[in-house]
Amino acid sequence: MSEYFFPKLNAVEAMAPYRLRTTWSTGEVLEVDVESVLRKHAFLAPILDPAAFARVHLGERGSGIEWIDAELGSDNVYAWAKEQAGEVSHEMFGEWMHRNELSLTTAAKALGISRRMVSYYRTAHKAIPRSIWLACLGWEATRPQDRALPRVLPTAREYAALHA
Prior knowledge:
The chain is an alpha+beta fold. The protein folds into two domains: 9-84, NE0471-like N-terminal domain (NE0471 N-terminal domain-like, 2-Layer Sandwich); 90-162, 434 Repressor (Amino-terminal Domain) (Orthogonal Bundle). It has eight helices and six strands, in the order E-E-E-H-H-E-E-E-H-H-H-H-H-H. The protein has helices at residues 35-40, 50-53, 74-84, 90-99, 104-111, 115-122, 130-142, 156-162, and strands at residues 9-14, 19-24, 29-33, 57-58, 64-67, 70-73. The strands form two sheets. The chain has a three-stranded antiparallel sheet, with helices on one face. Strand 4 and strand 5 form a beta hairpin. Helix 5 (104-111) crosses helix 6. It is elongated and about 60 Å long. The model has no long low-confidence stretch (mean pLDDT 90).
């Protein structure tokens, strides 16, 4: 887990098989389904046993969620929960920056926001508004090269040609 990641995990509770209720330092209570993660990695297979899954507990200082000899980092769990709730996660925002080779400064310029806000979004210090995520996708689709903003989005054919 990154030392820059903000929300701390305060509590975790097993619910229906492979679903967890997580409580965060932000006051959020988020449910997350971890079945696909457990099935994806062979070393996590023992946790698929409902009795083993029920023994979930908080890692040291809220660093993650633990069972016997396995752990899921709290930053990943937070991102999965946000995404499953239909929200934008810090991981989605960071992937957008990486995919477009943007620094804090260039991402801020692209979105018309401060460098500090970009940092807050990337580290989950602030929730990412839907409008910001839509701006990220719009910027990626149009890739404006100068100060002039596009008046329309490219057609599917134009977008494909831009990203070929």
